[in-house]
Amino acid sequence: MRLTRERSLSQKITKNTIFNIVGRIWGVLTILFLIPYIIRYVGTKGYGIWAIAGALVSYFGLLDFGLSEAFVKYISEFYAKKDYMKINKIIASGFIFYFITGVTVMSLFPFFIPFLIKWFHIPRDLYQEAWLVFLISFFTFVISYILSCFRVIQIGLQRMDITNKI
């Protein structure tokens, strides 16, 4: 029985590692192929705006405050104990936190767009384009941020196959 459990754990680790590697490679390849397309479609100035928006969104990812790691820890811990009620409480708390934080950021962000446009010296003729790119980028971030608690659940359950397929 112990040998079977060790083999099962080894298979799970191998499977999760393969899915993580494939997921990372897919992400890198997607970006490598997407950049020339974006530059061809929106031009170098438009791509610059897109890159600034992407960098800003990345910094907003810090709003997680390390909670996703805590959720992973406790979900996996309670899953091992088969304490599904505590898992449900963690998921509900996480979703509420991410939802409130995300909605707060999204409701305040439009007020900061003019400041960002000036800060990054975006040309006046690209003002509307920059406004739209920043708004769409942050709206997409907020949706992704709120739904990230469901990604964390899959990580806590050691289901990297599902995590990377999403």
Overview of the structural elements:
The chain has 166 residues and is mainly alpha-helical. The protein has one domain. Helices cover 87% and strands 0% of the residues. It contains five helices and no strands. It has helices spanning 2-60, 67-80, 84-119, 127-156, 160-165. Helix 1 packs antiparallel against helix 4 (127-156) and helix 2 runs parallel beside helix 4 (127-156). The longest helix has 59 residues, at 2-60. The two termini are 34 Å apart. The relative contact order is 0.14.
Task: Using the CA coordinates, give the radius of gyration.
Answer: 20 Å
Measured by DSSP, the beta-strand proportion falls in: under 5%
The major pleated sheet works out as:
none
Low-confidence stretches: none
Task: Please provide the ordered H/E string of secondary-structure elements.
Answer: HHHHH
Given helix and strand content, the structural type is mainly alpha
The counted number of beta strands is 0
Contiguous helical run count: 5
Shape: flat
